[in-house]
Amino acid sequence: MEDQSSHLQEKVAPASNEDLLHKMRGKSSFSDVDLATEDEAYHVEPTEEDWAELREVADILPVSAYLVILIEFCERFTFYGLSGPFQNYVQAPDPGHYPADQPGALGKGQQTATALNTFFQFWGYISPIIGAIIADQYLGKYKTIVVFACIYFVGLIILTLTSIPSSIQSGAAFPGFIVSIIIIGFGTGGIKSNVSPLVGEQYQSRTPYIKVLKTGERVIVTPQATYQRIFNMFYWGINIGSLSAIATTELEKNVGFWAAYLLPTLMFIPGILIVVAGRKLYVQAPPRGSIFVEAGKLLMYSTKVKGGMKACKPSQLRTTHPELIDKVTWDDIFVDEMIRTLKACVVFCWFPLYWLCYNQMTSNLVSMAATMQTGNVPNDILQNIDPIVLIFLIPIMDRLVYPGLRRIGISPRPIARITIGFFFASVAMAYTAGIQSMVYNSPPYYNYPSEGDGPNYISAAYQIPSYVFIAISEVFASITGYEYAYKKAPESMKSLVMALYLLANCFSSILNFALVSVAVDPKIVWLFTGISAAMGIATPIFYFCHRKRDLVDVEEDAIARQGTVKKAYDYAEPVSETELEAKYEAEMQHAA
């Protein structure tokens, strides 16, 4: 097939062409076209009266979606399993024996440990941009995941080998740790930007339809409710996998860091095997080599043509700038997709503050727990309260709360859900600031507990609500962010838009770097207070700025590619049924 940059998608044909479209849907093999399924052709679209009276429900998820969730489970088991012990590994010195009251290896102190942990988060969330470009423009999501999984595995081997006692004693552990987190961060970034769009791609329906349940109730099956369920399940798999930190933090204390890193390394192997074994089952959108050039040209033209990006639609350029029409390689739908994507990216600009709240859970909250009474459990095991809460909370929200709200006519759209998530993140940091103040007011070391020979006399159980509030915030903000990034991205740019969403975590790491100087006793209480205040102020402003996006959420999601491909200069011309069929047959013969 000739260069896909010269091919474009056509609008849905009028109702008079339904039989032809049904024929096309049944036999099309275009790799870059998102066609409706044959079953969807028979779906009855809801009327305005149906929307007012019937509730929304999610569709049945395909088996391939569950396979992708299983892949993510293995990768997150590995990631959280090895990163869980990072703070202790870098911060505390090697106790020289196991079990240890305070596990450690490198003895670099809290500031260095927090800085390196923050760098790992930063690198792991900026590298998805590289993986996204490779996937969208060159290899496709599946092949990119395979390549980056191999890179990831190399980093795991280095981390495990340099954490054995002989490597720690010889001084190889610290440089080995630096090299390994760079390689692992690069590997995980390439996977993260592609595995979440891949799970979304497994569901192909793009339009709502009426369905009659076994109870006789008529409901509306919507892509919005289905994608909400898909990414709820996806995030549930992430948090099941993250419980590996319970095992690895116990291993670091009772066996050694080499055992803590060996377990997730071994768990990564089944993940790779699942990727390879299921390759024929996944719905895969191939790369479109010209997509970034095309997007760049559209943005450039939008600055030159009066009326902005909307005026760059081929249907308008034919009248206003006919001299440009031969240079245009996009269609009207691509312009609509780009406008929708840019608006989504503006929403992502608010997420760095949210991730700044979240990331305290794996750094300063861990260090705080080390200054509190933890009994016989490691100080860094408490962070697993967050995924444990999510494992129970996500199914409750997905199966009870959201369906219950839909039954009474309430269907919370993305901006409203994200706002609720931001609010709970602020509450989490405010509560944590209060607990830090209690630590400073407790004997025997008061404001300088990290400099004492033991913890202050206050139970680490006081931290539990911090993790609960963070978990609640994730259900509303983080999961919805994944869903929003997938839905609002063009088919050919889903990895890139997902990477831009993940990039917000990278910027939060930069903010965290700026706060490292405050992450020392007795200033930490002000660190948590400042973060809470910033998130609290941003939350209502965010909703005020973006609340109107919820009003057009369903309408925007309906922007989709259906039908055959055709040239931009033909886009605005009416096409008869005979011409449409002839163009389709010609393209099919050319593809063959």
Automatic annotation (TrEMBL):
The lineage of its organism: Eukaryota, Fungi, Fungi incertae sedis, Mucoromycota, Mucoromycotina. It comes from the Eukaryota. This is Uncharacterized protein. Its main location: membrane. Keywords: Membrane, Transmembrane, Transmembrane helix, Transport. Belongs to the major facilitator superfamily. Proton-dependent oligopeptide transporter (POT/PTR) (TC 2.A.17) family. InterPro entries: MFS_trans_sf (IPR036259), POT_fam (IPR000109), PTR2_symporter_CS (IPR018456). Residues 1-20 are annotated as: Disordered. The keyword Transmembrane helix applies. The chain crosses the membrane at residues 122-139, 145-164, 171-191, 258-278, 342-361, 381-402, 414-440, 460-484, 496-518, 524-545. One of its GO terms (molecular function) is dipeptide transmembrane transporter activity. Residues 1-10 have a biased composition (Basic and acidic residues). One of its GO terms (cellular component) is plasma membrane. It holds the Pfam family PTR2. It is a multi-pass membrane protein. The keyword Transport applies.
